[in-house]
Amino acid sequence: MYQLSDFLGAVSQDLFALGIALALGALIGLQRGWLARDKAAGQRVAGIRTHALLGLLGGLSVQLGRELGNWVPAILLVMVALAGLAGFLMQNRQQQDFSITSWVGQVLTFCFGALVVAGQPVIAAAAAVVTATILDNKESIHRFLKTLEANELDAGLKLLLISVVVLPLLPNEGFGPGDVLNPREIWWMVVLIAAIGFIGYFAMRFGGSTRGIMFTSLFAGLSSSTALTLHFSRLSRQSNSRQLSPLLAAGILIACGTMFPRILLYAALIYPP
After folding, report:
1. Are residues 100 and 178 part of one domain?
2. pLDDT tens digit string along 186-215?
């Protein structure tokens, strides 16, 4: 028999989910409202109240979808997108602002609220925090893009290509005598060397030669001191600098020195005392 306590429990869970949806919307709205805090009332397209209500609307759309049909969230999402687009066009006409970031944020806020009520509050909360962080760091992101060189962007994309695209496609099995040649493990070493070189380049660029090499050595020592030794040896040969070579040698020693604590940590994790 259906008890009143079961009904109250279900209602409280739904209300709690809607509260989270409202809070996530308010989080996005807090950042957008703070950014437009100097504007007069009526000049802000969407602030903390609008985003909070969008999150709540997203949660309610899922609730309505359970009662009326799965088409309800889709229809409401389209309506929210069209309303946000209309606000964007009006703002563009008045302020000549061609950025659609605010509009995308509104659509995402609706989706976060829907995700919470759909049973994915952790994913929704994590995505909302990441979204708010990206929105709040507009100046830093643009400043970084201005300092980024074309060859640096190309190197980063190539690193992603060999690690995200090529590596998973390689077979993870042995070939040759004794099955000693594993294509994925061999390519994993290539990825490690490339990643160490990439991180080391930016560490030396922003932290200077000494601090950059030390940071890279500590990082590489936690993953592969062999890969760092190969990379630093090649770098020393290419640079042919008497000042840089001792730093690179010290970096190799640091990476090798971290190998022993790393092995102890792995052993403690695999075979806890």
Report:
1. no
2. 888 788 777 766 776 676 666 665 666 777
